[in-house]
Structure formats: C-alpha cells, structure tokens
Amino acid sequence: MRPTGRHGVVLLLAGLLVGAAVVPGTAAAVVRGSPDLQVSLSDDTVTAGENGQLELTLTNEGDVDAGSAGNPALASQVTTARGVDVTVDAGGTPISVETDTRSLGRLQQGGEAPLAYGLSVDEDATPGTYTLDVTAEYRYTSSIAERNGARNHETETRHFEVEVEIDDRARFEVVDTDAAVRVGSTGTVGVTMRNVGSEAASDATVALASENGDITFGESGSATRFVGDWAPGETRTVEYEAAAAESAEIQRYALTATANFEDEDGVERQSESLPLGVEPLPEQRFPVVDAEHSVAVGDTGTVRLTLENDGAVPVRDATVTLGSGSPALAFGESESATRFVGDWAPGETRTVEYDLSATDAAEARSYALDATVDYVTPDGERGSAPPASVGVTPAPERGFTLSNVSTDLRVGEEGQVRGTITNEGETAARNVVVEFTTENANVSPLETAYSVGTLEPGETADFAFTAEVGSAADAGPRQFSFVATYRDGEGETRTSDELLTRQRIAPGADTLAVEPVEATYAPGGGGELTVRVTNTADETLTDVSANLFADDPISVDDGEAVVAELAPGESTTLTFGVSAGSDAIAKSYPVSVDFQYEDADGDTHVSDSHQVPVTVAEPETDGGGGGLPLPLLGFGAVGVVGVGVVLRRRR
C-alpha cells in the first residue's frame, strides 16, 4: 500500500536517508539519536493538611545511535528535546495538584530542569505511599543527513510514575483566641492550639507574629513561648504580652502562629503558619470638651481645661498633665504641670487649671498644648490615654499694621516706598521707629530707619524710604518687610512682628531711543545702515559704544560705532556696514543693536537690545524690460557709490 499524508513523507524521507547512507565512498552519512528523559523527586514526603510544592527534576540522558563522532553539533541536535510539556496527575489520591502543565523550551543531552508544582493534601488523608502519574510530551530530530541536511522529526510522549509519602507527623490548628489588650496600652493575647496530627511533638515552641505595626510584642513584631511535649489531640493555650499602638483601630488584625518541634524520629519540623485575628479593645479616652485662657505675650495668665472620661470603665488615681511643645509657653520654669483628679467615672467631666506664661519671644498665633491623663483601671493595670491637644493663642503685646503702601521704584533708578503705620494695641507705643528690613539684594535703601515718635492706641503715622534698584534687577512684584521698634509702658524696648507688603518694581526706562534713517538694500547688495540715536535720559551719557548684530540673510560688515557724549535729548546718527544675501527675498528683516555707556555718576550700564528693521527690495527696471542684468546692475550701483565717495572726499 502506498503511504499517504505525513507518514508517507516520513517514509520517503527515511528512504532518502537510507540511500544517502549507502553511497559508495561516504562514511556515517546520517546521524541518528533521540532524547532519553527521566523524572525524579527531591523530596517525596508531605503531610496531611499541608499546602506546599512538589519539586520534580527532569533530566535528559539522550544517546546517539549512529553517526559521525566528529560532528558533535549534529549529535547535540538529535539528542535535544524541544517544546517539552510536563503534566502531573494525582487522580485517585488525597493529593491535589494546583499547577497546570509546566513547559520548557528545550532540554539538551546531560541537562536537567527543576519543575515546581503547587499541591495540597487533604486534612484527613491516611498516612501512606501514593503514586502520581507524570506525562512528558516533546519533539526531537531523530536523524540528520550530513551531506544535504535532510531531517526527520518525531514527537514523543513518555509516562512516569513517582511515589509520594504522606507521613503521620504532628499537625496543629488554632481553635480559639482571646485578646485583652486596649488601644494605646498593653495587655495579653491568648492563642489556643490543638495537635490534630497522628504523632506526638517534642520540645515544641509556638511563635506568634504580627503583620501590622499597630500590634507588637514589646519592641518586636513577634514573640515565642515554650510548650514542650504535645500529644496527638491535646489542646494547649499560650499567652503573650502584647501592645496596641495609639494608631490602632477597633478591627481584627492578622497574626500568624507557627509551631516548631521534633517528630518521633528526632527530626526538627516546622508547621505551616496558621492565621488568626486579634481585635483590640477600645482605648480609654479623655477629650477636652472646653478650654479657656487669659495669657498675653510677655505676661502670665491661666489656662482652664474641662475633660471628660469617654472610656468604657471607671478609673482611679487619675492625673492630668498639661505640656507645652514650644519654649515660648511655659509653666513657671517647667515645660509641663500636673494636677490630681482621683476617681473618674465614665461620662464624668473634670476641670483643671494651670498658670501659664508667654515669653517675649511668643507670637500671636496658636500654640498646641497636650493634656495627658494617667490612671489605674479596675483590674489594677496602669494606663495612659493618648494626649488630647488644645490650642492656645496669646494676645498680642503690641500690634501694628501697614496701610496705604505705594512705591515708584524702577529698575536702575532711585525711588521711594511710602506707607502708613497704625498702633493697633491697647496702650501707647513710645519712640516708634519703622525699620526697612528687606533682604532683596537688588534693592538698597539709602536709610533703613524712619522715626514716627509716640503712637497712641489707634493712632497712625506716615513714613517714606528712598531706595535704589540695581540695573540687574528684574521688574515685577516683590515682597518688602518692615518692623516697628518701640518702648512699652515700663520702658522696655520691644520689636513688633514682621510687617509685610507686596509692591511692584517697574521696568527701567529706555535711556536710548533708536530709529532707522537709511536701511534699504537689493538682494546680493549692501551698503551703509544709518540709525538715529537719541538720549532720552535726564543726564548726560558718555563713552556710548554700539554693537550691531544680524541673522542670515543679513550680514554685518562693520558692526561697531562710538559716541563720546550725548546730552539729555541730544540725537546723533551712527553708521554701520551691512549686506543682504543674494538669496534674500524682498521683505523687512530685523537687526539688533545694543549699547554700553556711563552715566553721570560714572557707573557703566548695558542697555537692552533694540531692534531696527532693514528692507530688502528688488531694483527698479525700465518699463521695456531692457534694463541691465541684475549682477551687472549691482556692479553699476557699486560704481556709483564709489563715485559718490570720491566726490565727497574731493569736496
């Protein structure tokens, strides 16, 4: 029967290979071989109720059946398994394989590949040995003709069996938990566990670990307790000292318990991490429900607080400590003060009073004070409630405000900053001096102090400062600061808070004005660019030097000019040499000119760039179209200009 389909192709190819192998004068014309896969287990023992991994190792012990030993490349090809798919089937056993087929790209002769499969074992699995089926499917090249490279490809499926033992070691489960720890305090966590395995455990310990920083064991996230021998079916309760942070919430926090032990053969074992949940008890809170104070900057007053027991239990031996986090507020010579309260029932309020001082360095802003309640619970445990914060704002010692602030400051010029200061305090401020304290490096006050004398409560006074703005300054809004120094009723020198205002610095006025006089050229031509420069300042400028810049298609042949002196309002013309490229189109192009000069004080300044338009225009021709060609016309124009120069020089 004639072969058909894929098998026919294989047989025909095989015939060709056989024919090639017997050609006279050739040796080992065909290389033949195949992979030889083997499967092994690195650990063949599991435990009932375990969730873990099955570690398989796949090796290739392939052989070359025929062929030239002098061609190792072809030998490697016929012994390499490609597209390897490995599947594990645990059907009919108490073991479940959680991983689908694992795939490899290729496995060469002598190579090995570890393959991990997730598995779970039934909790009630009977100890013993169970067989798992392993199937490996792969492709390979079975033969290669050395002479023409003809190949024969095969697909192979191999079946293996591996044995897995379910042993009867000890196993554990959490059957109960009991948490007696309060938010913001310490307490105990009890964990009850049972050995549900079929074997006893020796020298057992149980480690309890927290997965959240809100629940800790001392300074650590875990703690371990010794249990000892633990028989099958036996239940043990292990207690741990635990703490719940002030940030903890009334919710279940995840913890894990892990047993470490020796089995009956003396082998050290570790159980799975067993999850459990702990919910802390609500914390004992004492919020501030009312607060009053009468303290001013530089003075001593009182702070009166009313707090409520917002917790679930009554407390005894309660104290309330009020502390300041700022040196501007103090309780005598201390940062805190304590008052005794005693017994305190849930829902009951208590009022405590403290003497508080605000130093001269204090500001009229809110300062935070923390009230902390320490107590003893009905169980005799000492507790400390989270601090309750209260804000205290000292009254201002003296107050000043600014109004009607204006300025005519301009970049590169002198100007004035004017304004009005008002005494907003309740007593007179004597010898008041307004100080200009700005730190802007480009603004230089000629004087920094302005005396306005005595200001009664509500009285105002005007002030003015002359300042110079540097030429390097940028125009725009700037913040200026002032303070008022004065003497109080006891003759002590005081300084007000910083008084801020936002004012605008105007751009500097153009000192030099520039306008073109003669600035038209033909494409490919050039000549003189004449501009008129006028001194618009109110002072004489000296050593005025000009520099001209241009971009393609305009080029600068002579870009410098100098004027020794320009009086206010005086104008002069400057001449530069420019050229227009031959490819320039007829339109206007900008060129830039800037200046360096000295003012009447001898200071050197550099101006902003001034743009001047130059025009490129086509030369006019006669109506008949019989004009000279453009290049010749250009030379003619140059000749005329040359004649003009000669005549001018002769005159």
Describe this structure in words.
The protein has 651 residues and is mainly beta. The chain has six domains: 5-43 and 58-111 and 123-167, no CATH class; 172-278, Sandwich (Immunoglobulin-like); 288-392, Immunoglobulins (Immunoglobulin-like, Sandwich); 400-505, Immunoglobulin-like; 512-616, Immunoglobulin-like (Sandwich); 623-651. Helices cover 7% and strands 56% of the residues. It is flat and about 115 Å long.
Helix/strand structural class: mainly beta
Helix content: under 10%
Counting H and I runs of at least 4 residues, what is the number of helices? 3
Number of domains: 6
Q: How far from one another are the termini?
A: 123 Å
Extract low-pLDDT stretches: 1-28, 623-651
**What sort of overall outline do the alpha carbons produce when their principal axes are compared?**
flat
Beta-strand residue fraction = over 45%
What's this, in brief?
The protein contains 3 helices and 48 strands.
Attribute tags:
6-stranded mixed β-sheet; 7-stranded mixed β-sheet; Immunoglobulin-like; 7% helix; 6 domains; disordered N terminus; 651 residues; disordered C terminus; 3 helices; mainly beta
Secondary structure topology:
Blueprint: H1 5-21, E1 30-34, E2 37-41, E3 45-47, E4 51-60, E5 63-66, H2 72-78, E6 81-89, E7 95-97, E8 102-107, E9 112-121, E10 128-145, E11 151-167, E12 172-180, E13 185-195, E14 201-210, E15 215-216, E16 222-230, E17 235-244, E18 253-262, E19 268-270, E20 274-278, E21 288-294, E22 299-308, E23 315-324, E24 329-330, E25 336-344, E26 349-358, E27 367-376, E28 382-384, E29 388-392, E30 400-407, E31 414-423, E32 429-436, E33 443-445, E34 449-455, E35 460-469, E36 476-487, E37 493-495, E38 499-505, E39 512-518, E40 520-521, E41 526-535, E42 541-550, E43 554-558, E44 560-566, E45 571-580, E46 588-598, E47 604-606, E48 610-616, H3 630-650
Parallel strand pairs: 3-11, 40-48
Antiparallel strand pairs: 1-5, 1-10, 2-4, 4-9, 6-8, 6-10, 7-9, 10-11, 12-13, 13-17, 14-16, 14-18, 15-17, 18-19, 18-20, 21-22, 22-26, 23-25, 23-27, 24-26, 27-28, 27-29, 30-31, 31-35, 32-34, 32-36, 33-35, 36-37, 36-38, 39-41, 41-45, 42-44, 42-46, 43-45, 46-47, 46-48
